[in-house]
Structures are given as structure tokens and as C-alpha cells.
Amino acid sequence: MAKVPVQFTLNGEEKAEFVESGATLLKALRDKIGDMSVKSGCQQGTCGSCSVLIDGEIRLSCLTLAETCSGTVIETTAGLAESGVLHPLQRAFNEGFATQCGFCTPGMLMAAKALLDRNPQPSREDVVDAIAGNICRCTGYEPIVQAILAASRSNSVNAA
Ligand code: FES
Ligand code: FES
After folding, report:
1. Nearest-ligand number for the alpha carbon of 59
2. What mean pLDDT is predicted for residues 24-52?
């Protein structure tokens, strides 16, 4: 399989790798770069666990070719905390018991961040819409929705 160069900014750091042509961004992030915060679930675009932000937009990394990401800015859950201080969304998930097994949590956090970045004061309906593509087997969703709304009410979220 031919290797192709790809370079992008990941959580503020420049990355340059050679990936197999046709490899997914999910595979590149986990296997080449070692960002295991991006979860590999269905690999078919139906569970949302692999969600990342690309240039500020929520994307499924299992359906994104790594070679199409050159020049982009990619954010994952691994970059949410700054200098050891949790992002307001991470604090709200912890405090609101919005995480059980945790497998869906990175995808949920990125979907929530995409929402709050463009709409800092979302309605409950906005939150439900934003996480509609993310499957959780454990929580029943309500603690997650409440945690996102709680984060949106915190003053610090707008500065994060
Ligand atoms: S692993 Fe990408 S949507 Fe399930
Ligand atoms: S907390 Fe287990 S899948 Fe969501």
C-alpha cells in the first residue's frame, strides 16, 4: 500500500506522518500518533465514539481519510485539559456522573465542545440535537444532557 505524507495541527502541536493511502484519520490518530483518546467503536459511522473536531467542525474520524486532513487543525479529547486543569465540560461530566463505562465520553465531549464553541448558551433541544449521533450504552443520556447544560452555564466555558 502506498504511503502518503500528511501534516496537521493536533491539539496545538504540529504533526507530520506518512500514512497508508486510504487509511482513516481514526487509524492515523490511534496507531501512528498514539492519541488513544479517540475511541474506535463501530468504524462505520454510526456510534460517534471516534468524533473529533476538524477546523472546528465535528467529524467522524472513522469516515475521514487521513490524507484529506493535511493543513487542518484537529482537536481531540486529549487536548481539552490545559496545564492539568480540566475543561469545564470535563468537570461537568465528572460532577454530574455523566460518565459510566466512559467509552462514549470522548465523542460526547467533542460533540458538546463543537456545540458550545458556536452556541455558548444552547437550549436543551440544541444539546439533544448535538449529541444525536453519539450512542451511549450506559447513562440513559439525561446526565450527559444535564452536564452539557451545566457547563454552558459556567462562566469559564466561554473563555476555555
Ligand atoms: S467508530 Fe466512528 S462512528 Fe463509530
Ligand atoms: S458511559 Fe458507557 S457508553 Fe456511555
Report:
1. 1
2. 97
